[in-house]
Amino acid sequence: MLDWWQTYDTWIVVTGALAAMSCALPGTYLVLRRMSMMGDAISHAVLPGIVIAFLMTKSLDSLPMFLGAIVIGILTALLTQMIRRFGGLDEGASMGVVFTSLFAVGLILIRVAADHVDLDPSCVLYGAIELVPLDVVTAGEGNLEIPRAVLYNGGMLLVNLLFVGLLWKELKISAFDPDLATSQGFSADMMHYALMALVAATTVTAFHAVGSILVIAMLIVPPAAAYLLTDRLGRMVGLSLVIAGSSSFLGHWWAVEGPSWFGFERMETSTSGMIAVATGFLFLTAWMFSPRHGLISRWISSFSLSLRIMRDDVLGTLYRITETGSTASRPVSRAQLRETLPGGPVFGTALWQLRVGGRIDCRDGGFVLTPRGEKSARKLIRSHRLWEGWMVEKMGLRPDHVHSTAERLEHITTLEMRTELERQAGEPEHDPHDRQIPREDE
Amino acid sequence: MPSRPTSTLSISGLIMTRLCAAFLFIVLLFPAFAAAGPGGTALPNVEELWRVLTLRDYNTRVVVAGTTFLGIASGLVGSFLLLRKRSLLSDAISHATLPGICIAFIALQIITGNGKSLPGLLAGAALTGTLGMATVLAISRYSRLKDDAALGIVLSVFFGAGVCLMTIAGRVEGGNAAGLQSFIYGKTASMLLWDAQLITITAFCAAVVSVVLFKEFTIVCFDTDFANVQGWPAGILDFLMMSLVVVVTVIGLQAVGLILVVAMLIIPPAAARFWTYNLRIMLILAAAIGGISGFIGSALSALMGSLPAGAIIVLVTAAFFGLSMIFGSSRGLVTQWLRHVRLTHRVGRQHVLRAIYEVAEELNSDDPRSTVPIAELAGKRSWSARRLRARLRRAAREDLVQFETETSVSLTERGLVHARRVIRNHRLWEMYLITHADIAPSHVDRDADMIEHVLDAPMIEKLEGLLLYGSEEPAYVPQSPH
After folding, report:
1. Interior/surface letters A300-327, b for 16+ CB within 10 angstroms, e for the rest
2. E strands along B273-422, which residues?
């Protein structure tokens, strides 16, 4: 499957993984502070900074470029804040005004610079990770050739790890409760601008690999996916690092092999684009299958709850029909059950589960309760009628008003509750509708 | 009495605003100057300028008309987006159009052999644009992530998919995908008559829909729950509104590119908002600003041929935004600042008059117009000697106070009337707080101090009715409760 893999590919994946992981760290706090789009704004807005630095130094790896990006990042945050405060616009709109204008300035600068230098806007926008292994630094005596981008992104990852590690508590408090942070003596605003500077620096480091737009995928998507998987900050950071790293591998693999799966033979596509798609895929997976917050998990748990209730209701209905005497122990047909119970897949599944579980038997085209089923049914009916009795006796409700409440409570009533209900209601023999309350099984 | 700002104030304000404007112009026109430098194109001469502005060339005419109508449409539609606080949704939508364009190109290339059919590409763009919009709404509705993360996710993942597909499109046999790039940055100069017609028709439709459904859209923007309660199909209206955004985004792709079309949707309404509190006027202004920016921007880029028109248009819009933010007549910074300064002066004047009156009353209870030493006034309030002197001089210029000697002042006839009114407001409010709100006499001064400046006539009448039973003469100044 991966027989085309070479050292070259390893370096691409390593670069992508390092870039994605260093982005995921500040990204976590962007997602938590609900300012993900600030990442988008900054990564668009650094374009003029990059171009100006490039015009000045004629190189893409320079300290001025790095500093220029940080300055522009903080400037974007400041301008947004200013327009929001003095102009009364909402945050989204003020961000939109700032970053589009700066981006337009960048585009014009590129055009102006085109006569002097060769700077391809598409390289700035979506990077050239495929070319990363060509630009190497030789290290040590073993002629170990390490791509320059690996060193830069690795360094940035270390810086981010240090930042997050050292300021863990401060970042946490200012993310969740800025006022508390300020009252504790460190300014939440300072943390905000420090974070923005870090986002800008990380963005400009990673843009070699993935370009300034796909950086947003690395900043936002892995932390967002991790946010759906856990409720602990530490785990969220760890998970987003894992998701970021694996999306780099998946992205490169799919970029090389993916097109052929759709009939485009012998074609490769952009790795950086595919890394973004891979983060999206992992996010989708988390969104659907996260144990607690996933859509499908939530759907499954609500389905299984309605199944449980339906099983109880089937047993209860069978018991009530059998109880009326004349039809005792005669099988109850499906149609008869459907008179009181809603049909549908839940009904069918519940019947099947009851049969497999040995609580009802299928006889002469109808259903009867097995001894085991009758035991559960008795418990349920007992709960129901005790509740009705208790509500009439202790709360003074009218007998014809208690059924629907009891219908809900019967599913969650335990043995202890039943005993207590019986005691409080004065150990009744019959419920308010004059039906017998079954005895508790020994 | 209505207060008016003094002349010195407005002059300094004027200088300030001129400086700001100059700064803004330099910043915004920097790229244009850079272009005119040694490397760029030469500055156009007057003849050329005239030719472009009067739309002599066929090509210019098409481009200018197209961008102008685009500006009008996006200004209208963007206004609703701004009110809905969903400006950045347009960003997600525009990025999400890229995969659609590429898929349409690949499909058309394989099926018909010619991938460059504009209607096909735009249909693809609209399709994934809508899909992206729906995904944003779904993520913020069905997960615990908020709007911002949903936007970021959709924007980057869809764009990533678009980049991948574009690479494939470039390698499809017989395909020439070079034109697809122009959807990212826009290629205004190569706009054809057909494109301009498409934009014009769409802009017209968008305008008609906005006008016809103005009331409904307004209700949905300001109070969705109310719209629901009133029986409007708020969900459908909301979707329609967002579909208009998709449509405008898609037609704007060709002109300004998918990154900058966002600016056309966000900036003109944001700029219009500084001029008015009336939604109708805001819509008209936004459309006008969008249209004029489109016109000026494309004309400028026709003059300076090598510069990307999309970026120029956006910078012109940004210049409008900057000007509106500073000079806007209802929310602009200058207006806000003037309002603030006027209020400060009014409050300061009233404080001075009240202080003189009170001191005069203490020194000589018969004559509130008796001469008061300035040193006595200083203790009344936490103002510095210089500030107090400045306030007094200002009041003297307004004929409210007269200097008896260098160190003492007295109220003029006019000043007395003013002072009485303020004192009366102050004491009425104090008495009201004491008698009707059960607040201790020692705690009411501060509260009355703030409210004395803003009590209006009906309010005073009410207070008089409550406290004086309407029996007293109008100029009566109640005794201080202290």
Report:
1. eeeeeeebebbbbbbbbbbbebbeeeee
2. 372-373, 401-405, 408-411
The tens digit of pLDDT for each residue in A388-439 reads 989 988 888 888 888 888 988 989 988 899 889 888 888 888 888 888 888 8
Q: With an 8 Å Cβ cutoff, is B167 touching chain A?
A: yes
Q: What is the pTM assigned to this prediction?
A: 0.82
Q: Is the predicted pLDDT of residue B318 greater than 90, yes or no?
A: yes
Model ipTM value: 0.85
What is the rounded distance in angstroms from the CA atom of residue A267 to the CA atom of residue A260?
7
The answer, for B170 touching chain A at a CB cutoff of 8 Å, is no
**Number of domains chain A is built from:** 2
Summarize pLDDT for A23-52 with one digit per residue, the tens: 999 999 999 988 888 888 888 888 888 788
Query: Are both A328 and A188 inside the same structural domain?
Result: no
Q: Can you give the residue ranges of every domain in chain B?
A: 42-328
Decide which of A312, A345, A369 is a domain's last residue. A369
Q: Which residues in chain A (401-440) have CB-CB distances under 8 A to chain B?
A: none
Please give the backbone phi and psi of residue A228, each rounded to the nearest 5 degrees, phi first: -80, -15
Give the tokens for residue A219.
């900043």
Rounded mean pLDDT, B49-66: 74
Domain B42-328 CATH superfamily: ABC transporter involved in vitamin B12 uptake, BtuC (1.10.3470.10)
Range of the domain at A195: 7-219
Neighbours of A127 (CB within 10 A): 29
In terms of domains, do A209 and A338 share one? no
- Please report residues of A whose CB lies closer than 8 A to that of B286: none
Whether residue A335 sits in one domain with residue A207? no
Examine residue A246 and state whether it is found in any structural domain, yes or no: no
Residue A103 lies in a domain: yes
pLDDT, one tens digit per residue, over B420-448 is: 888 888 888 888 888 888 888 888 888 88
Looking at A30-39, A81-90, A334-343, which range is the least confident one?
A334-343
Domain boundary among A219, A240, A260: A219
CA distance A35 to chain B (A): 6
Count of C-beta atoms within a 10 Å radius of residue A118: 8
- Cβ contact A245:A187 at 8 Å: no
